[in-house]
Amino acid sequence: MSQSLQSAAISDEADAVLIADIVNRIRSVVQTPDSVALHEPNLGELEQRYVNDCVASGWVSSVGRYVDQFERDLARYTGAGYAVATVNGTSALHVCLLLAGVGRDDEVICPALSFVATANAISYCGAVPHFVDAEVRTLGMDADKLKNYLSEVARVDGDRLINRVTGRRIAAIVPMHTLGHSVDIAALQETADTFGLPIVEDAAESLGTFYNDRHTGTFGIASALSFNGNKIMTTGGGGAILTNDEKLAARAKHLTTTAKVPHPWQYVHDEIAFNYRMPNLNAAMGCAQLERFADFRDRKQTLASRYRDEFVGCQSAAFIDQWENESSNFWLNAIWLPARSQPTTELRNAVLEATNSAGLMTRPMWDLLSDLSIYQSCPKSDLTVSREMVQRSVCLPSSVCLVAGSESGKTQ
Ligand SMILES: *Cc1c(COP(=O)(O)O)cnc(C)c1O
Predict the structure, then answer these.
(1) Is 228 a pocket residue for ligand 1 (Cβ < 6 Å)?
(2) Contact assessment for residue 254 and residue 272, using Cβ atoms and an 8 Å cutoff
(3) pTM score, two decimals?
(4) Radius of gyration of the chain (CA)
(5) Integer Cα distance of 201 and 241 in angstroms
(6) For ligand 1, is residue 286 a contact (CB within 6 Å)?
(7) 176: Cβ below 6 Å to ligand 1?
(8) Disulfide check for 136: which of 1, 5, 164, 310 has CB 3.0–4.6 Å away?
C-alpha cells in the first residue's frame, strides 16, 4: 500500500520528526491557529428559516410538506427513482435489508472495516454478519477476494447460497462507501451476480459521491443514507432509503410507517412494522441543507486538494485520494502512515495523541467489527488488509467551514 512511502526505520527520534511534520502540515491546511473539530455541521439562516416555518405550521411530526419535498429533492439529486426518509441511517439500513429478503438465521456479507451500525442493522433482522476484507485502492470491500472466498466457503443449493461451515443461507452483500469513497461497485456487482446475491449499499457516508457519473447508493436493490450530525449534511438525526424499484419504495414507506393501511380514520396495520418515519422538523432542516449541498461539496473538494497538495511528495504520510472511477465527496479526509515491518497501532496512536493535543481533532478509522466482543464469534474471511488499514490510517479535520463558502452560512 502507498508505495511512495518508504518503510521507515523505527526510531523514537525519527518518529518524533515524522509526527511533528504531520502536525505542521495539518495546521497549514486548516489555516487557523484555533482548535478544529473532525467534522462539524454547517447551519445557517436557511436552516433557521425552514425550521421556524415548520414550527409555525404546527406540522413538526411525521406528516408534513417538508418530508415530501425532502424525499423529492433527494431522489432528484441522487438520480434514484425513489427516496424514503427515515429517523436515522441505521433504521434505513435495517429496512433495506428487509427489502432484500434478509431474515432470521441468514448470513449477510459486510465489511469488517465499518461503523457498528452496518452489523447492527443485520442483527436487527435476526441475521448474522459475515465479515470480509477491504482493498486499499477503494477502502471498501475487495470484490475479487470476496469472489474467491465465496467460491471456497459457499455452495449453491437450488436458488440459495449456503455457507458450508455454518449451514446458514447467505442472503445479501452490503458494501459500504468508506469515508465517502466509492467501492468498486461494478466489480462487486459481478461477484454478487456470480452467486445470485442482492446488493444493499451502506451509503451513509457517500451522499455526493459518484461512481462513473452515477450516484453511489443507486446500484444496489436499495441503499441507506445518513444525515447524522457528523455526516456531510445533517437533519439533526435522519436517514433515507434509496431505490429504483417502485414496489420496494412503496414497501419501504409501508415498513417505516407502522404498516398502516391508508384510510381516513381507521387504524388498520397489516403487519408488525416500524415507526421509522423522519419527522417534518428534521426534514425542514434537510431541505435547507440540500439546497446548500452543491456548495458543501465544492468546499470539500477544495479542502481535499489542499490536503493533497500539502502531502504530495511527503515522506511522513500519504493523502488518501479518490481512485480513478469515482468522484468522491471527501466526507472525511485521511492519511496513510508509513508501513512498518511489524505493523502495530503504536505510530498511529502517537500521531492521534500529538494532533489532538495540538487542538487538531483527528480520529482512527473504526476497530474491526469482528474484534468487538459482540461480533467476535461471527464468521469472517481473512482480514489482513483491513487490519493494516486500521493500523496505518488517521482521519483528519474535514469540516465544510474550513473552506470559505460562496455564501455566508453560520458555521459555529
Ligand atoms: C453514520 C453511519 C451509519 C448510521 O447512520 P445513523 O444515522 O447514525 O444511524 C451507518 N453506516 C455507516 C458506515 C455510517 O457511517
Answers:
(1) yes
(2) no
(3) 0.95
(4) 22
(5) 10
(6) no
(7) yes
(8) 1
